[in-house]
Structures are given as C-alpha cells and as structure tokens.
Q: What sequence folds into this?
C-alpha cells in the first residue's frame, strides 16, 4: 500500500539509560507527551494507538494517563525487532482509510533494569506455546539467546564470502563516530577503534560484545496524521512514501537455519522490493539508511538485500566509506542501537525524521529520502520516508 497521504508530525523520547528509576508506563507517557508537544497536537486530538505486541503498556491505561478521551483505532505490530516501521505502516493505513485522524505510536521498556532480552529464553508455562515449541528445535543445541542465533548466520557469512570476523567491526566503528557527537547516545564522547572492537569479550563466536546492541531503559513516541493536517502544523512534513511487512520462506525463530542460504536476509529483500515499488525510488535515490542493528552482521546483510551492493560486498562498501556522513548511503547516523540506544528500532525512526527535517546532530546535507528497516530473521517491516 502506498501511504502517500500520511505523515509523521511529532517525535518524542525520554533519556536513554541503564536504570530509568520509573515505570514503563511513566516512560511511555513522558515520550508521548513530548511527541505531542513537538507536533503541536493536544492529547485530546489523539484517536488511535499503535505499539508492539510485547509492550507492557496497555493502550487504555496510557490513553487515560495522557488525557485521551475517545479512541477509534488501536493495533499492535509483531513482536520486537521487526516491528518499529510496521507501527508506522499500521498508523498510516489507519489514517488513509479514515479509521483514525491522529495516531500515537509508542514503545517503552525497562529492558536493562527489568527484563533483559539477551538472557537465555526459558519455557514459561506448562502449556507449551507455538514459540516455545519452536525453541525445542534450537535450544538443546545451544541456540538459546539472540546472539547465538545471529552467530549461526554470521559464521556462514564469513565462510561463504571469505570475510574475517574483524570485518563485522567496520560498521560499529562508523556508528561509534556518529554517537561520539550525539548527546542522546549512551556512548556520547566515547570513541572506539577497530582494535577496541576486536579486544572486546566474546559473546557467541564470532560475535564480540561490541557486535551486540545495547540494553536500554527508555521510551519513544511518534505522532502520525494526514498530509493535509501535517501541512498546518509546526514542522515540515515527513511523508510516509512507502510501508511494507515481510516474512520469507522457511523462517524459523531468530535465525532461519533451514534455508538454502542463511548468509542473507530474504525477508528484508521482500520488504525492500515493496518499498521501492510503492515509492518509485531506487537505492541510489536514498540519502539516509537506518538499518536495524541488533548485531553488526545484520547491517551488512541488509545493505546487500536492499540493493546498495551485491552479496558479500557490504564489508568493502563500508570499508570504502559509503556509510559515513559524506558517503553514498550514510547509515545509522545517530549511532544506531549499537551506540545510541536499543529501543527496538523506534529511535531509528526518530533519527530518520530528524534527518529529513534537517535537525539531526550528524546531518546529511540535503537529505530528502530515508529508509528505515526492522530486524531481519523475524517477521519484519520497513518504511521509506520523504522530506519537504
């Protein structure tokens, strides 16, 4: 669906920390009020909500605390990593179909001080769910954490394309350079060299600590409305030019180990192909990429799946400077989830909006089009956004 009639008009965040000291509801409300204030929209104008299926903040509770009086639409996007652009997609569809006029998208979590997603997954009930049953095919063999799943594909990528584990550190170094100048980033003012990456402790061979995203407490919210209404608000419109969701064949857990090619991310290609068709844009037309970076190899695989280079060519693309601020496709210019914060990709959406408004800390000159992806190896999503 081409969501050309919808626009993001407000963005709001809390600080990103390792211990927020307050409830997830408080974080969601704080970020939501900031986004509404940024948009110049009153809470009473909100009539729609979108969040993640795993967010702990009930829509009705958040609505009551914000002063939202009547809600006509609410929806949840799948799980975590793949879902952030999908939240914008659902909001845009609600706007275009007349189901809602102002939709608040939010994500809040105490992921570091509360439930830590990087810990081994356990069977949680006596009645085995579908997800728990799937884990029975992987957990007994040591694949019990997200890092272990990603390591499986990373090792195959190394073998298939003659890549060294140090090549996975190239993009984290670039993103740390972005974070060093970003006051919102956890690693603000803390540079990192490739030697630091290689010296960091092993998490799941070949992935080291600095290949892995952070654990973060915080909240993020975005306000979506019609393009017509957006034109009357305070900020230059950031249009939703395309939105897509994708599940590829033989997808399993967080690493599709039964595919013929486990060194690629077919679901990201499915999403990218839809986005290019909807927006009438090609990779060369994009000025900024915000690619989901729960682990560094996923960035390389997504650059390839989205057509910025061929299979196995992403390490050379990064080495040649393409993802830097003056490169062909500046990527994760806020520092990403590796160096700014891990907010299930919602902070990446905020960065894309800032780039297209011209207000980013690491501003790409004359940025007009940005692509944002959800995490690969799960049910995923993506959007292409356009500035004025």
A:
């Amino acid at each position: 669906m081409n969501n050309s009639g919808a626009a993001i008009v407000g963005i709001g965040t809390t600080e990103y920390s390792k211990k927020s000291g307050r409830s997830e509801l408080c974080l969601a409300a704080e970020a939501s009020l900031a986004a509404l204030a940024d948009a110049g929209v009153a809470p009473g104008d909100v009539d729609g909500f979108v969040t993640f299926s795993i967010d702990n903040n009930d829509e009705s509770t958040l609505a009551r605390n914000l002063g939202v009086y009547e809600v006509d639409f609410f929806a949840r996007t799948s799980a975590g990593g793949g879902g952030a652009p999908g939240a914008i997609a659902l909001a845009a569809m609600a706007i275009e179909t007349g189901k809602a006029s102002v939709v608040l998208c939010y994500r809040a979590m105490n992921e570091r001080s509360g439930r830590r997603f990087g810990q081994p997954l356990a069977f949680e009930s006596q009645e085995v769910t579908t997800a728990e049953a799937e884990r029975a095919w992987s957990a007994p063999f040591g694949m019990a954490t997200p890092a272990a799943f990603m390591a499986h594909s990373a090792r195959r990528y190394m073998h298939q394309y003659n890549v060294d584990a140090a090549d996975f550190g190239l993009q984290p170094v670039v993103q740390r350079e972005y974070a060093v100048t970003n006051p919102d980033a956890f690693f603000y003012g803390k540079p990192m060299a490739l030697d630091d990456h290689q010296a960091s402790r092993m998490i799941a061979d070949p992935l080291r600590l600095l290949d892995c995203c952070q654990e973060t407490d915080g909240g993020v919210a975005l306000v979506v409305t019609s393009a017509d209404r957006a034109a009357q608000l305070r900020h230059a419109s950031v249009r939703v030019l395309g939105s897509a969701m994708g599940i590829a064949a033989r997808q399993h857990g967080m690493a599709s180990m039964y595919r013929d090619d486990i060194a690629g991310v077919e679901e990201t290609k499915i999403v990218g192909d839809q986005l290019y068709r909807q927006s009438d844009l090609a990779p060369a037309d994009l000025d900024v990429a915000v690619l989901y970076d729960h682990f560094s190899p996923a960035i390389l695989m997504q650059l390839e799946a989205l057509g910025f280079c061929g299979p196995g060519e992403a390490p050379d693309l990064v080495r040649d400077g393409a993802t830097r601020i003056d490169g062909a496709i500046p990527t994760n210019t806020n520092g990403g989830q590796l160096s700014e914060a891990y907010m299930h990709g919602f902070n990446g959406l905020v960065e894309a909006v800032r780039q297209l408004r011209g207000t980013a800390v690491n501003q790409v000159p004359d940025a007009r089009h940005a692509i944002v992806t959800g995490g690969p190896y799960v049910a995923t999503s993506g959007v292409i956004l356009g500035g004025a």
Summary: The chain has a mean pLDDT of 93.
